[in-house]
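The freezer alarm interrupted the setup, so I double-checked each line after restarting. Inputs confirmed:
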Amino acid sequence: MSKNTFGRVFQVTTWGESHGPGLGAVVDGCPPGIALEKEFLQRWLDRRKPGQSRFTTQRREKDEVEILSGVFDGKTTGTPIHLMIRNTDHRSKDYSEIRDKFRPGHADITYWQKYGLRDYRGGGRSSARETAARVAAGGVARAALDSLVPQFSIKGYLVQVGPHRANRQKFDLGQIEKNAFWCPDAEAAMHWAAFLDETRKSGNSAGAVVEVVASGAPPGLGAPVYGKLDADLAAAMMSINAVKGVEIGAGMDAACLSGTENADEISMGPNGPVYDSNRAGGILGGISTGQDIVVRFAVKPTSSILTPRKTIDLAGEETEIVTKGRHDPCVGIRAVPVGEAMMACVLLDHFLLDRGQTDSKRGKIG
Amino acid sequence: MSKNTFGRVFQVTTWGESHGPGLGAVVDGCPPGIALEKEFLQRWLDRRKPGQSRFTTQRREKDEVEILSGVFDGKTTGTPIHLMIRNTDHRSKDYSEIRDKFRPGHADITYWQKYGLRDYRGGGRSSARETAARVAAGGVARAALDSLVPQFSIKGYLVQVGPHRANRQKFDLGQIEKNAFWCPDAEAAMHWAAFLDETRKSGNSAGAVVEVVASGAPPGLGAPVYGKLDADLAAAMMSINAVKGVEIGAGMDAACLSGTENADEISMGPNGPVYDSNRAGGILGGISTGQDIVVRFAVKPTSSILTPRKTIDLAGEETEIVTKGRHDPCVGIRAVPVGEAMMACVLLDHFLLDRGQTDSKRGKIG
Amino acid sequence: MSKNTFGRVFQVTTWGESHGPGLGAVVDGCPPGIALEKEFLQRWLDRRKPGQSRFTTQRREKDEVEILSGVFDGKTTGTPIHLMIRNTDHRSKDYSEIRDKFRPGHADITYWQKYGLRDYRGGGRSSARETAARVAAGGVARAALDSLVPQFSIKGYLVQVGPHRANRQKFDLGQIEKNAFWCPDAEAAMHWAAFLDETRKSGNSAGAVVEVVASGAPPGLGAPVYGKLDADLAAAMMSINAVKGVEIGAGMDAACLSGTENADEISMGPNGPVYDSNRAGGILGGISTGQDIVVRFAVKPTSSILTPRKTIDLAGEETEIVTKGRHDPCVGIRAVPVGEAMMACVLLDHFLLDRGQTDSKRGKIG
Amino acid sequence: MSKNTFGRVFQVTTWGESHGPGLGAVVDGCPPGIALEKEFLQRWLDRRKPGQSRFTTQRREKDEVEILSGVFDGKTTGTPIHLMIRNTDHRSKDYSEIRDKFRPGHADITYWQKYGLRDYRGGGRSSARETAARVAAGGVARAALDSLVPQFSIKGYLVQVGPHRANRQKFDLGQIEKNAFWCPDAEAAMHWAAFLDETRKSGNSAGAVVEVVASGAPPGLGAPVYGKLDADLAAAMMSINAVKGVEIGAGMDAACLSGTENADEISMGPNGPVYDSNRAGGILGGISTGQDIVVRFAVKPTSSILTPRKTIDLAGEETEIVTKGRHDPCVGIRAVPVGEAMMACVLLDHFLLDRGQTDSKRGKIG
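Predicted 3D structure, all chains:
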């Protein structure tokens, strides 16, 4: 039950700090015989890569992934796959200033209190840079899912930046790759750009809400009661840096629904049960229904900002702090590929866990 | 990584179905020498017990807990504590009608699809009755925390029923035990009573939002990055029946905050760091700050309702369903003691995990 | 990673003490739809039951097992199966004498040192009585293996009592059920009877070696490198009370073999590879070969003996101890069904784990 | 419950193959603030390094370890420590010959059957080269134990090569570092040298028995009943390549002892209990007594030998095999530092686990 490992049978262990030599993921339990090329993984890493628009950190990292084990002749061998990403643009000098001060809203103070020391360079292990390893691991999970589950796909996007929500009536999935926000509502994306420019100029930062949808997953994934699919997804998303809330389907708004509204009515389609709605977010009793699996999570604003904040230093003296460095004005943007990666890992894990227990046989209806 | 076990070093394994002979929890990893009496556990079970007001199920269960192992001469021995609760009022006949139909919004269909068979009597393992075992286990965790962490306390309450929110300006913790909703806002409780009477009469059900606050926890609990305190809390709460969303501190609203608002500013108090606000919900970087730990979760409305819903049966035929039985019009109410129990278990687990790694030493400030 | 749980996906959690109300096992991860009756489990428990010959303890326990969850209409549901066995003949007064003294060679002193208190009645949790729960759980594993793996069987027997080894030339498996020692060599069984009568009369006890063989297991079970089939078997057997050594195939004698002797030569049979010998004990690189899986373990003599031994008491005073109570003169005898049960649990666990990862597909030869 | 991870709270995940770019270990759960230098780890790796005498493989690997994370300013940070060792002398061409044949007694065939493909270059993941990662991780555990447990030490040595046992009467621990066999009996070492020269010349290989002793460990380590210290040690040692048997204390010979012989009598020393003998190997009921912890394991002879052996190929054709490559005539020699490393990891893990549960408090005697 390693603190830096997640998953039940498909397991990912990550290591590395923001300003050390690099970071990586050991991916264990992958089925053998899955075609896996470095280029396939790189594609996902490139989406998370910093410095792609003016709305993300200007740190320049190529985030090139190396496959150091577990793949032979282009296929997974069933043994651990080690993925490594070297840090190249780590300017530790940027951090000397905050060496003795704690950024409010940041893990600086809790790492110090827990461990009695901390790698102050870029947040060390608490840096969002760790998520690059997750994205690489998620690429392995996607490759396996592509092979095991026909028609499977995962799509992540932003639905809110600061207080501004996208309009679901205007959703066009084709827009997602066309703006800097992975936003299916092109109009919202334009407003967000203006809002974030403003935010950045004023030395501030903004939060966001990410939605990740998995389509084509079979029914029957999830292991009640403490390995519920939604419980594992909640932990996976909440473990991403800066996340403060996780929702499945109707989410927090489920509290507002009446029982009649909440019940997604069922009819019989040509290939099995069909649902009139999806307030459940594709999960009932912790087990997938076969509908889209819908997860949302809120990302708080970056705590590293240019506006001075009241804080204390190691000596216990009260002071102010301004964080220069190179920081994302809205870390939520780059959380999109991370959320997709976590979804892929959790679903593959449950696919394999379910296959172990049930041989992927499903109860017959009709 | 058992599906019916949670926790890392303090671990709880539950078993049992709604209409079998009973249910229970095996609690492993408890420190030795903790005073533990049946009566102490019963106190928490009595809060979750059905049939205590007209707003909960009329099933009459005494929920009497037996301690079958792990306690000797009134103290925990450090070996597994088995807690058992017998079912006494299980009228299986109530369920014969829904034997071949799937309740929309219920785990009926997913259990059938995954396992190819299901215990249709009261939902079997998917019943909220399983949560009695969690409350019993939570009692053990509370006993240990009372002994290990001075001034520690946990308080749960409802902050929303259906679309109606309690007013935080009117919160009086003294009110919590005085109404049927564990609500600190007496006025809201009155309105909710009227709203739920209406809901019940119309053959419907309502959702709710529960908030659980732990005070007095030390800084330094939580194990980044996949054993973050908030990630474990999210999984714990999401694993409770009918929960669709989990929030820490500002939660989903964190997306709306600016970086300056989100940063809980720090000053120096007589006993260490003091924070001007608690948008973080007491957790930064997955590690507790020493502030109140604040978790909220949304409970969807009961899917077992008297209003007919469209569904299918085992033969794949389309039909309607009406669930008679005895069901909670608002399961969120009884989720309050369950949320408290999960909070207690997760915090004790992390207290012990942290003590193992760090010997409970904290980094010095000032 | 619970201390009282074993297994990776098929997981068994046990609870209970020698002189408490009872003991039990929560069996999680069993495939659904497996026929399971109480009578089937009882059959294995009856083999371990005390008081069946003059060579085992005279404590009279019926060891009746109850199935309290996880089985519906005679089939496993895929949810946790709780098996409970009540203690009926626990005469706690027998133990009052040893309350303040530590039996040499017994867990009395280490439990005291670790936990600061101990249940002195019959050893509490350290009693071999705990193994009844393993045997019950093993029955579930056998039922599943019978259904999943055709021609699968497990056979355990004694190969040594005290310094006296059975003669493999005279092995006749038909003899196993015909003597009090589960011994395939009828002659050895007779000698052992005389030897143990002598041992018992002189107020002493004897050790033994148990061999457990699983036939019909498919190749491919085992998960290198820390979930090797032999590593998991070694842990499983070493966790049985009083076990001090575990061997796979040639075992400790493998050190004496030359490389040419050790290599089990391979030829091609009608259904795949055939081996000329089985020094590997059916496991290579931690993965099953399809040959018989052969495990042996040594059980030390009971430490509760009538001959006085030098020891100390709680006050630190030096003294002598004589253990009256009712004890097995050779606990190794009753360890046979326990070893079989552990073998069944480990093999089912690896069958399911392998099916999850590889879909039970095997590399083609020929 | 990762297949390539071991440990409960101090956890080690290894990756890498014999002929890939390298291998490594992610070490998680280490206490923070432990001084750790690359040179300290290198010292242990140098003991396992190939090519140090004519009795080990002539492959020339420097086995230089890099610390890529988890250490800052010379101290562990409490976050994952990644240790990497690059492969430099991997001549893949050596293996082309055995690409389509299975070495008898080797994991070649089982990897093929399980995974449907295999990295035939030097055994891939099944190579003993993987143990370099364990030795590196063991170095971290030693550093932590040195800091946490005063007077703690671990000493490993060979006690048998082929059928030839060392003579315990002639043991002189000072001899261990003075011969190629880590043998405390100088005379035995001389005989073994002659024996192994003979073995090597005749194109054969030999087994061995390794003994590892940990001194100075406190009483109270070990977590009954499935996390017993001896059960975890048995799994740890059995997971080492080519190990076929594991013994604690008297080991398999415990079967030959009488109850009176087996009971290590206890008297009272100036600092607590003192034992007249140590047949228990320092562990009772799965918990350490405070005596020396004594583990032995048998290593079978290398299966890669120059003498032709009967086998089959991928096409299912019967054939012969001769393994040229560069192989250890007695892999048991280099297993000594590996056994020491596993001992260190298991003991640190249990030290931390016990501290979590009991705060390292011990029951008072006297």
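Quick read of the result. The two ends of chain A are 41 Å apart (CA to CA).
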